[in-house]
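Predict structure. Chain length: 430.
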Amino acid sequence: MSSCQRKPGLSDLQIDAGNALRVNIKFAMNRVDQPVLHYWERENPTATFRKDLTPVEDQQLTLYLLKPSTQYAFLVTAGTGSDKTQSDTLFFETPRLPYTLPRLNIVADSGNVFSGYIMVRKVEEPAQQLLINHEGKVVWYHQFDTILSRFYTWTEEETILSLHDEDKIVEFDLAGNTLITMDYGMKGFDQLLHHEIIKNQKGEILSLTRNMQVFDLTAFGGLERDTIYGDGILALDQEGNKVWEWDMYQFADPLEDENINSMKKDWSHGNSLAIDKDGHYLISFRNFHQVWKIHAQNGEILWKIGMHGDFTLQDDEIFYSQHTAFNNRFNELMIFDNGGPERMVSRAITFDVEDRESYTPGSIWVTLPRELYSFKEGSAYLIGDDKLLFCSSRTNSLIVTDLTGNILWQLRSSESFYRAYYIDDIQAFK
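Prediction complete.
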């Protein structure tokens, strides 16, 4: 039998099943023409999954979406047709889910509400990133050995761009591979980060920064040399070089704020950063109850919407302590309005804002029941064109509603999540 017809043998086999839902397999092959790995639950051999392999001798791959406490079988085939051969069948077993995962309980479900995944982050030790399906089950998780910041982004490349505290940027994939690591003080990373991290179309990494300047606050009851903490934006390329930065003090004067002495430790509290439909930036300032649009090249403030902003809002259009301001798929400014003492309900609202001259209310105005009020943190995002995913952080709840506010699905967790993203589809799972 010629070498190309040999039965594919697997040597130097290593199986790492340390994660109950994700297994790493390494092996060497003696035949590498058109190799395919086939795997299945040992008790259900008719439901077989396959993964095409790169035609190389040394293989290293990760299997996703496995079940915990389950025995799996796998084998490798090589070649096609009459020349196709297969290896021996081998086995591995996944461990139990760790007890440190949050306890999840579905309290409302109208059936077939969504087919994708909800991504959340648990920041208490041990920190974990989670994917939850419509059954309220964790179908993927990644556990960290470091304390995590609450802020991360799911990217178009199916990676997770993350802040690990204020002084580290990390990007990793669903296999747990670290793709980017940047430490404070490295190249252009010269400011501490907070509350947001995103990528633009060039692949540049943008984050909100914590900026400070010294002012004379004696006229406000403060010190002659008093420090005010505000916000900025830092843009880095993927090598860590600074490509752009913005400092709000160049465009806004804190001494025009009569409450600046009481606000100086956290004047503006920027809590979300997004890219608008025309490439400029949207920043949510929680303490101002405003969203600003910032020119992406010269940094000028194009408009402010919200309390005491550039537009005269009706009473029911004013929002309080908002989060996750972004341009949604309908090209509307979408905001998670946390609410406040003036209106103790949380809601998703939208505005159509073209320029400083005009705005109109958008198409989405959905209010959560008062028992789901989240006075801080939280998020609201679209699921398709006709549903909303809410994260009510203060009530430990994830909620899916229709666009009239009917609750279609609701999950309660033993732990709070800062934000929840909806992910329609994941190619890496296919």
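Summary: Helices lie at 260-263.
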